[in-house]
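Sample log: Puromycin resistance protein pur8.
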Amino acid sequence: MYRSSSPAPAVDVLHAKRWWALGVLSLTQLVVVLDGTIVNIALPQAQLELGLSDGQRQWVVTAYALAFGALLLLGGRIADYWGRKRTFLVGMLGFGAASVFGGVAQSGMELVIARGLQGAFAALLAPASLALLTVTFTHGRERNTAFAIFGTVAGTGAAIGLLLGGALTEFADWRWCLLVNVFFVLAGLIGGLLFVTESKAPGENRYDLGGAITVTLGLGALVYGFSLAEHGWGSLDTIGFIALGVLLLAVFVFIESRVAQPLLPLRVVLNRVRGGAYLIQAVIGSVMVGATVYLAFHLQIVLAFSPFVAGLASLPMTVVIMICVPFLTKLLPVIGPRPMMIGGPLIAAVGLFWLSGVTPGGDYFTQVLPGLAILGVGMANLFVPVQNLALTGVAPEDAGAASAMANSAGQIGGGIGLSVFTALYASAAAAEAEADPAALLASFTAGYSAVFTAAAIAMLAGAVIAAVFIRGRKEELMPHVGEAPAAVHV
């Protein structure tokens, strides 16, 4: 009897489309993350050309993280309610326009505003892309693979940004560190239209305006307060803005416990495992942003590397991560996420402690390279499971909010971490300069050593967080491990 075989190609096409969608969404995550660091190496040239003050120079980095982190939760709900694909495409267009504005900026203020606009549109892009990934890969080994790839791209984006920024600054112009985003945006728009399927939360939905205002202002005040710590932890401005941020966030939590359709349903963060994953993502964000920024300074100022060579010299961490991820992805269903979540920060802390031994007359191959390699092994152990844990068990209607929380944790952690590390750097460098005013490079390396030591301590705290929060059998922590792939729900 004749039987039609026509359904099979449709399944194959759907299967292939999912993996193309993963490529598009991963590209989005790459450009969002690398833009947090791509301008770091370009800052000296940009400061000279535009006449930036030291304060404006810091805000070129901080404005992006501040706008990104403060608006992520609102962006996540917009994605849930308005449509994730639609939000993704609008975010792409806006991000590209802001990048062009920054690339042609004629003053320091214009550049800072452009970076803030980039962060605002990234706050639409990031949760939309992660939510799309969540509803596209729902079960089984494919979900593990997809999240491992996505998490690795997110984790290595900072290092790739340093490399690309160094190449563009040295061989083209610092403005191309912003203009290069146009190519990513075009690829994302075309890929999004072709391969990404629309999805949104069901039913009638209302925006939680009170929650949106309080969390945005609260996170903004908190990050700004920490950015003032460089001028003294005891200053009235520093204490005042940090206290204001904490107060507004407390009001936000109160609002979320009362409204019918909260911006961030408290059930998303009160889950022990997901809450622990968010805290660890904040630690990862602080270390990846802070450590890469001061590593770039050490490579260029102390070791006198050119911008491109400095970017290239930071690449071993990324290479090690890429080598480790395939092996760890296969290992994850066998041992579960808990050993990786505890062991990863401990290994990363060893690498950071190694980097804290930098000296003015030190050598890259003995003082820097081993630390980067060890740090890469530790980070790979975190990148494979952390995104998955942050979204495990999330209801489809909460996918955007949970995705936003995962990204916001990393961005706010990065913004606060960079501010704290900057304050520690300034204090250690000033103390060394006071002891020996003639030893300028020694004061720099004293500051860098303090930053790397603090980052190592943060990683040790991450291991403690994992031990306390990431508890249970692997089947409980990741219930989809070992299941057959389920149908795609979009």
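Observation: The first helix runs from residue 7 to 34.
Observation: The chain has a mean pLDDT of 82.
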